[in-house]
TrEMBL record:
Gene Ontology molecular-function annotations: 5-(carboxyamino)imidazole ribonucleotide synthase activity; ATP binding; metal ion binding; phosphoribosylaminoimidazole carboxylase activity
Assigned GO CC terms: cytosol
PROSITE patterns recorded: ATP_GRASP (PS50975)
Residue ranges of domain ATP-grasp in the record: 112-298
Enzyme Commission identifier(s): 6.3.4.18
Gene Ontology biological-process annotations: 'de novo' IMP biosynthetic process
Identification of the protein by name: N5-carboxyaminoimidazole ribonucleotide synthase
Keywords: ATP-binding, Ligase, Nucleotide-binding, Purine biosynthesis
Summary of subunit composition and partner proteins: Homodimer.
């Protein structure tokens, strides 16, 4: 496995050209790197901030090889890249994170099994491979469950909540009659996430946990640092460090966590890329998650994860653009301590992430109050 350091002036390839790729590319440019991306959307968010954008499906191994041949190192901003594409890239440039990480993460069943094998805490779950199995599994797990397709889905897609086994056939049809993971509903106190960066040389840093609030299973707002007990924060940090080390991640790993009302901390899902819940690092920390991603995959010394000032973010969905009058940019830009981040997307759709607002404060409570006031001023 290559541990070569890619110094500024080199070329970074990114599989994926969405908003995460765009923001990673901007950080890479600040550090002096050339940047290329590959994305199936000819109008993807990253297109106008990279040196070269290859328009191709993620399964197009030939185009991925072209990108790799012209790159010193390749990373990703979306985990739904076929393993064959990742392996094709690795023939020509270091692929960080590697296919071994994505093989675990891409399939919820494999991910759950890997967590169980490693002894990491998680809620009751089972995999179901047929409608009959799903019905009996929901019954065995108590009726109230979340049914999730093993592959695909994000921002709440590919999931179907059920209240009893009687709803299992509908869930099976809605999720495409394919293997699913069934997770027992849990009594939640809070949803948290922790971000780990690990370099090929084995250096590891972990950001403090973020506190996350979801609406319709899409992240609505996030607070950094999260308002959680110190012992919970310490446990989250150690869980993240242990999982990134066990997976031999080269790059970023975000661990989504459930804090239960009984005090237990359980793993929800893993994401080996920048994450919506850590956008606040751009204004809260000395090193944003996007710069950290570049540092990690290029094998540079990792940056500080210190939270210099508390911050919060709120997502801006396409629904706001579809309303009469659209977003009130001028109102929010006049507010002290608030920043506007737009992703350069041409088409607004309901539920589509078009950008986010960030706000800082002297306390987490102040940052959260500012971001909520900013969203209201924006017209949301």
């Amino acid at each position: 496995m290559s541990t070569r350091t890619i110094l500024p002036g080199g070329t970074l390839g990114i599989l994926g050209g969405g908003q995460l790729g765009r923001m990673m590319a901007l950080s890479a440019r600040t550090l002096g790197y050339q940047v290329q991306s590959l994305d199936p959307d000819p109008a993807c968010s990253a297109r106008f901030v990279v040196d070269q954008c290859y328009t191709a499906d993620f399964g197009n191994a030939d185009e991925a090889r072209r990108l790799a041949r012209a790159s010193d190192v390749v990373t990703l901003e979306i985990e739904k890249i076929p393993l064959a594409t990742l392996n094709a890239v690795a023939q020509h440039a270091p692929m960080r994170p590697g296919a071994h990480v994505l093989e675990v993460v891409q399939n919820r069943g494999r991910q759950r099994a890997w967590l169980a094998q490693g002894g990491f805490p998680q809620g009751p779950w089972q995999q179901a491979n047929s409608e009959a199995e799903l019905t009996s599994t929901v019954e065995a797990l108590g009726g109230r469950c979340f049914v999730k397709a093993c592959e695909g889905g994000y921002d709440g897609r590919g999931q179907y909540p059920v209240k009893s086994s009687a709803e299992a056939p509908q869930a099976w049809r809605e999720l495409g009659q394919r293997p699913v993971v069934v997770e027992a509903a849990l009594d939640l106190e809070a949803e948290l996430s922790v971000l780990v960066a690990r370099s090929p040389r084995g250096e590891v840093v972990v950001y403090p946990p973020a506190y996350n609030h979801h609406e319709e299973r899409i992240l609505d707002w996030s607070l950094l640092p999260g308002q959680i007990p110190p012992e919970v924060s310490a446990q989250a940090v150690e869980l993240g460090r242990a999982m990134a080390t066990a997976l031999s991640v080269e790059g970023l790993l975000v661990v989504e966590l459930f804090l239960l009302k009984d005090g237990r901390l359980l793993v929800n899902e893993l994401a080996p890329r920048p994450h919506n819940s850590f956008h606040a690092t751009e204004v809260a920390c000395l090193t944003s998650q996007f710069e950290q991603a570049v540092r990690a995959v290029c094998n540079l010394p990792l940056g500080s994860v210190e939270v210099v000032r508390p911050a919060a973010i709120v997502n801006l969905l396409g629904d706001l653009w579809l309303r009469e009058g659209g977003p009130r940019f001028e109102a929010v830009l006049a507010m002290p301590g608030v920043r506007l981040h737009l992703y350069g997307k041409r088409e607004a759709r309901a539920g589509r992430k078009m950008g986010h607002l960030s706000a800082v404060g002297s306390t987490p409570e102040e940052a959260l109050a500012r971001i909520q006031a900013a969203r209201q001023a924006m017209g949301a």
